[in-house]
Amino acid sequence: MEKLTEKSMRDLTLRKNSTADNSEAPASKYSLPERTALITERLHLRRAQRGDAKTLFSNYTSDVDCSHFLQRKPHSTVSQTDSMLQKFCDEAWNVSGTPFSWVIAKRETDEPIGLFLAFPDGHKTDFHYGIGKRFWGQGLASEAGKATLEALWKSPNTQRIWTFCDPENIGSKRVLEKLGLTHEGILRKWAVLPAFGPEARDCHVFGATRVKE
Ligand SMILES: CC(C)(COP(=O)(O)OP(=O)(O)OC[C@H]1O[C@@H](n2cnc3c(N)ncnc32)[C@H](O)[C@@H]1OP(=O)(O)O)[C@@H](O)C(=O)NCCC(=O)NCCS
After folding, report:
1. Do 190 and 203 touch, CB atoms closer than 8 A?
2. Alpha-carbon distance 122 to 109, whole Å?
3. Domains of the chain, with CATH numbers?
4. Model confidence pLDDT, tens digit, residues 125-174
5. Whose CA is nearest to atom 13 of ligand 1?
6. Who's near 144: CB < 8 A, 6+ residues apart?
7. How many A from CA of 70 to the centre of ligand 1?
8. What is the pTM of this model?
9. Is the beta carbon of 176 within 6 A of some atom in ligand 1?
10. Angle, CA 155 vertex, CA 42 and CA 118 arms, to 5°
11. Integer Rg of the chain from CA
12. Does the beta carbon of 131 lie inside 6 Å of ligand 1?
């Protein structure tokens, strides 16, 4: 469930010269081990780049079904998506300890299709993710999650990675199981999901911990 507090976001366009892909950048420029571009068989997980907002809005952030189990409403304007990308997928990439996000893009075309957000909080990090409806059922969320979790474990402080999901979100529960997370229990009245109204909902919590070597 994406935790995006839109009211706190500035309505900015992505910086003109903002570059997304740091895969070929010198390591010294991007010193945070987990905030790096990732390549999988079919995906390119990366920083935001110019032009992403419009396509991501169309593919994912504006979609009612994609937002059904999220803590935000569907975006109604491209600028909301642009602001989110600016904050989480660009500015945060060089700032340790802040929430940040990968843009999930198709590897072949670099088309942005979803987001994978990470919220570091001391020794633990929770994550939230989603991809556009057109891309469901192809194993892409699992593929993205495997790569991003591996990257998150590279942060030396991280001892716990976790998330929660709505009991009715069968697809997400399955993805989390496939990623090797353990179903740890139920958090009562944990999240308000706008699609379900103001009443907080019980959520399933899934987690993994670093094994002490
Ligand atoms: C949940 C979501 C990320 C799943 O993405 P996806 O790319 O379709 O997932 P995958 O293809 O990797 O599927 C992984 C497994 O889940 C199963 N699955 C996915 N969606 C399912 C659904 N709606 N019902 C039942 N099973 C489902 C797949 O069959 C697969 O299982 P298998 O490998 O045993 O066959 C996607 O539906 C989505 O983005 N939803 C909107 C945002 C959201 O709800 N995010 C999660 C918030 S907690």
Report:
1. yes
2. 36
3. 6-159 (3.40.630.30)
4. 999 999 999 999 999 999 999 999 999 999 988 999 999 999 999 999 99
5. 139
6. 40, 43, 45, 102, 104, 114, 116, 129, 131
7. 14
8. 0.88
9. no
10. 60
11. 16
12. yes
